[in-house]
Design a protein that fits this description.
The complex is a heterodimer of chains A (about 400) and B (about 280). Chain A has about 400 residues and is of the alpha+beta class. Chain A contains eleven helices and 21 strands. A six-stranded mixed β-sheet of chain A has the order 7-8-9-4-10-11, sandwiched between helices. A five-stranded antiparallel β-sheet of chain A has the order 2-3-1-5-6, with helices on one face. The longest helix of chain A is centred in the middle third of the chain and has 18 residues. The two termini of chain A are about 35 Å apart. Chain B has a single domain, classed as Orthogonal Bundle (MetI-like fold). In chain B, α2 packs across α12, α3 packs antiparallel against α4 and α6 runs parallel beside α12. Chain B is globular. The longest helix of chain B has about 35 residues. Classes of the chains: A alpha+beta (about 400), B mainly alpha (about 280). Chains A and B meet through β7 and α3 of A and α7 and α8 of B.
C-alpha cells in the first residue's frame, strides 16, 4: 500500500544513429519528435492515492505500457520524478521498489512448477520456508489454483496461467501492484470472468493498483479513476462516470463508450442569454448545468462539433424539427437494436431499447426506412471545432 | 499409390546412403574381432571364422598398451572442460546478443556466423602460431588443461548461433519478471535463463562433444605430443616405427572411441533436432 506520484514524467527514445546520420524522419509521426528523440510519454503528472485502482487506457502506441514500465523500473525515466510512498525511485532497481507486476504474456518461469513460480520471489528474499509455504497456499486458495500447484505452466490453460501470474504477484504483498494488459490473451468469456475476479481480488488484497489496458470496458469496470492517453499525453483523468459524462475532448468522447459517440457539425447559439445547439432544423436548449459552465467560461456562439451518444438519442416519429435520416443497417442485439442511419451522408448510430417495442416495431427498422430522431439538452456535448476541446471545461 | 511408390524409392535411396555411412564402421568392427594375421585388404569384409576369431583380445591389447588410460583421461578432460566452457560462455554471449540491440552485438553475431563457414584448415597454422606466442605472457596452450580455450574459440560460432536463435524466441518478459521478483543479472541468468536454455544446451552439448572427442587436428597442432595424446592421436601411434601396424589393436581402439559418441548421439538425437529447429524456425 502506497501513494504513487508521477511528476512531469517523460520518456524519450533517442534517434537511432543510422537515422540521425541519414537525416531520416522517425516513422512514428503521431508522437512528438524533438532533437533528443521521439517523445513516447510527455508531461505525465498524476498522483495515485494509497489503495487506489487506477487504469491507464488508450490506443496502441499511446505510451500507457511505457508509463507502467517506468513505474516498474523496466524502462529508464528520461525526465521527471517518480515517487513511491514518498521516496524518489527513479534510479532504484525494480527489485528494490517493492512492486509486483503481472504481464500480458503471463511471463511464468516454464521450468518451475506453479508452486515454485509463486515461491520464487520469496525464496530470493530468503524468507522462512514455512512462511513461504503458508503464503503460497493462501494465495493459491484465493485464486482457486491449489490443485495445480505441482503442475508446470505448459500444463495449464490461459486462464489458469493468468491466475498463477497474479498469485506470483500477490504472495509478495507489494506496495504497488502493476498489471500490463493481463486479460488481453484470454477469450471473451474468460476475460469477463477474470475481470470479475480482479474486482474481487482487489477487495481482498487492498493495495494500490496500476492497470494498463486498451479495452475501455475493462477500464470503466475496474478503475476508481481512469487515465486516458493519446500519443504519450494524458487526455483526461477522472472517474469512469466523469469521463463518460464529461469527456474533455473529442478523442476521449470517441474512445470511451461503446458504440462510439456520434459527432455532428452543428452550431452553438446564444439567444436571450440561453445556450442552445442547432443541428439542421433541430433546436435543443442545453441543460442548466451546461448553461452555467458555458456562461462561466463566457463561450461565444460558434460553429461546433456536437457529440451525442447512441444510447441518448431517441426516435421522434414524425415530430417537426427532428433530424431525419434513413436506416442503413439494423443490428439486433437482443435487449437493444443498433441502428446505423445515414444522416446527410454521415453514419449515425442510434440504440433503440427493445423492452417496450412490439414484434412488429422491432422488425420495422428495415434498410431504407426513414426515421427521425432527437436528443435532450442534458446529454449534448459541445466541442470546439478546431481544437476538439469540450467547451464546457 | 503414387505416394507409396515415392516412399519406396526414398527408402531405397536412404538405405544406400546409410550403408555407405555405416560400411567403414562395420569394417572396423569386423576386423577388430579378427586375429592380427587375418586382417588383410583382401578379406576386409569377411566375417571372422573359427580360426580367425580373436574374441576381445584386440580390445584388451588396445586398453593395456600405449597408455590408453592416460589418453582416455586427456580426451575426457578436454571434451568435458571444452564443452562446459562453450556452453557457459556461448549461452551468456547469446543472451547478450539477443537482448542488447547495438552495433557490438550485431557484429558479434555476424562474426560468430562467419566463423562457422571458415574451414579449420584455413586458420590452423596461424592458430598454432598464435597459441605458441602466448608463451610470452606465460600462458601455455600446449597441455590438456588450457586447450579448452582454443576449443571455445572454434566452437563458439555454432553454439552462439544456435543459442541466439533459441533466445530470440524466449519472451523477454520472463527475465523482466525475474528482475521484479528480486533477481540480480547473474541470478536471472543462472536461475531463469540457463534452465530455459536446457533443450538447446543438450543439442549444442552433443554436437560439440562429438566434435571435440573426435578431433584429431587441433590437439596434434597445439598439444605437446610427446607428453599428451588424446585417443584420436593415440590411434595413429599403433603404427610402429618400422612400418609395422598393430591393426587389431587399432581397430579395437577405434571402436572404443566411437562407442561413447554413438551412445551420446542416440540418447540425445531428439534434442539435437529440437535445438536446431528452435534456432531455425524462431530465430
Amino acid at each position: 500500500m502506497a501513494e504513487v506520484i508521477l511528476k512531469n514524467i517523460k520518456k524519450v527514445y533517442p534517434h537511432s544513429e543510422k537515422k540521425r546520420r541519414r537525416g531520416e524522419q522517425e516513422k512514428k509521426t503521431n508522437l512528438k519528435v524533438t532533437d533528443e528523440g521521439v517523445l513516447a510519454v510527455q508531461d505525465f503528472n498524476l498522483t495515485i492515492a494509497d489503495r487506489e485502482f487506477i487504469v491507464l487506457v488508450g490506443p496502441s502506441g499511446c505510451g500507457k505500457s511505457t508509463t507502467l514500465r517506468m513505474i516498474a523500473g523496466l524502462e529508464e525515466i528520461s525526465g521527471g520524478d517518480l515517487l513511491i510512498d514518498g521516496k524518489r525511485v527513479n534510479d532504484i532497481a525494480p527489485k528494490d521498489r517493492d512492486i509486483a507486476m503481472v504481464f500480458q504474456s503471463y511471463a511464468l518461469y516454464p521450468h518451475m512448477t506453479v508452486y515454485e513460480n509463486m515461491a520464487f520471489s520469496l525464496k530470493l528474499r530468503k524468507i522462512d520456508p514455512q512462511e513461504i509455504d503458508r503464503k503460497v497456499r493462501e494465495a493459491a486458495e484465493i485464486l482457486d489454483i491449489t490443485q495445480y500447484l505441482d503442475r508446470r505452466p505448459k500444463a495449464l490453460s490461459g486462464g489458469q496461467r493468468q491466475r498463477v501470474a497474479i498469485g506470483r504477484a500477490i504472495v509478495r504483498n507489494p506496495k504497488v501492484f502493476l498489471m500490463d494488459e493481463p486479460l488481453s490473451n484470454l477469450d471473451a468469456k474468460l476475460r469477463n470472468q477474470m475481470r470479475a475476479e480482479i474486482i474481487k481480488l482487489r477487495q481482498r488484497i487492498d493495495t494500490t493498483f496500476v492497470y494498463v489496458t486498451h479495452d475501455q470496458t475493462e477500464a470503466m469496470t475496474l478503475g476508481d479513476r481512469i487515465v486516458i492517453m493519446k500519443d504519450g499525453v494524458i487526455q483526461q483523468v477522472g472517474t469512469p462516470q466523469e469521463v463518460f459524462d464529461h469527456p474533455a475532448n473529442l478523442f476521449v468522447a470517441g474512445f470511451i463508450g461503446m458504440p462510439r459517440m456520434n459527432l455532428f457539425d452543428a452550431s452553438l447559439v446564444l439567444e436571450n442569454g440561453r445556450y442552445a445547439v442547432k443541428l439542421g432544423e433541430l433546436y435543443v436548449e442545453l441543460s442548466e448545468d451546461k448553461q452555467k459552465r458555458l456562461a462561466a467560461k463566457n463561450v461565444a456562439p460558434q460553429e461546433i462539433t456536437l457529440g451525442v451518444r447512441p444510447e441518448h438519442i431517441s426516435l421522434a416519429g414524425n415530430a417537426a424539427g427532428a433530424v431525419r435520416g434513413t436506416v442503413d443497417v439494423s443490428e439486433m442485439m437482443g435487449s437493444a437494436i443498433h441502428l446505423h442511419a445515414n444522416v446527410g451522408g454521415s453514419d449515425v448510430i442510434i440504440i433503440v431499447q427493445t423492452a417496450n417495442l412490439s414484434d412488429e416495431e422491432k422488425a420495422g427498422f428495415a434498410m431504407g426506412k426513414e426515421i427521425a430522431f432527437t436528443f435532450s439538452g442534458s446529454i449534448a456535448h459541445v466541442f470546439d471545432r478546431e481544437s476538439g476541446k469540450n467547451l464546457e471545461f | 499409390m503414387k505416394k507409396q511408390a515415392s516412399g519406396l524409392i526414398w527408402t531405397i535411396i536412404l538405405s544406400v546412403v546409410s550403408a555407405l555411412y555405416l560400411y567403414p564402421i562395420i569394417m572396423v568392427l569386423l576386423n577388430s574381432l579378427k586375429k592380427e594375421s587375418a586382417i588383410t585388404t583382401a578379406g576386409a569384409f569377411t566375417a571372422p571364422t573359427a580360426e580367425t576369431f580373436a574374441g576381445l583380445e584386440n580390445y584388451v591389447s588396445a586398453l593395456t598398451s600405449q597408455g590408453f588410460g592416460k589418453s582416455l583421461f586427456y580426451s575426457l578432460f578436454i571434451t568435458i572442460s571444452s564443452v562446459a566452457l562453450i556452453l557457459l560462455c556461448c549461452s551468456m554471449c547469446a543472451w547478450y546478443i539477443s537482448r542488447v540491440n547495438n552495433l557490438l552485438s550485431r557484429m558479434m553475431y555476424l562474426l560468430c556466423a562467419f566463423s562457422m563457414v571458415v574451414p579449420f584448415q584455413m586458420v590452423m597454422f596461424t592458430l598454432s602460431q598464435t597459441a605458441d606466442r602466448f608463451r610470452l605472457f606465460f600462458i601455455r596452450f600446449n597441455n590438456p588443461y588450457t586447450i579448452c580455450f582454443i576449443y571455445l574459440g572454434f566452437g563458439a560460432g555454432l553454439a552462439v548461433f544456435m543459442f541466439t536463435g533459441f533466445m530470440r524466441s524466449v519472451p523477454i518478459e520472463i527475465e523482466e519478471a525475474a528482475m521484479i521478483d528480486g533477481c540480480s543479472p547473474l541470478q536471472t541468468y543462472f536461475r531463469v535463463v540457463f534452465p530455459i536454455l536446457r533443450p538447446t544446451m543438450i543439442s549444442v552439448g552433443i554436437l560439440e562433444t562429438m566434435w571435440v572427442w573426435n578431433d584429431y587436428l587441433l590437439p596434434t597442432l597445439v598439444l605437446d605430443i610427446k607428453k599428451y595424446r588424446t585417443i584420436p592421436m593415440l590411434i595413429q601411434y599403433f603404427r610402429g616405427s618400422y612400418g609395422t601396424v598393430e591393426m587389431g589393436a587399432m581397430m579395437a581402439s577405434i571402436m572404443l572411441t566411437v562407442i561413447p559418441v554413438v551412445i551420446i548421439y542416440i540418447l540425445g538425437q531428439k534434442h539435437i533436432i529440437k535445438g536446431v529447429l528452435a534456432g531455425a524456425v524462431k530465430g
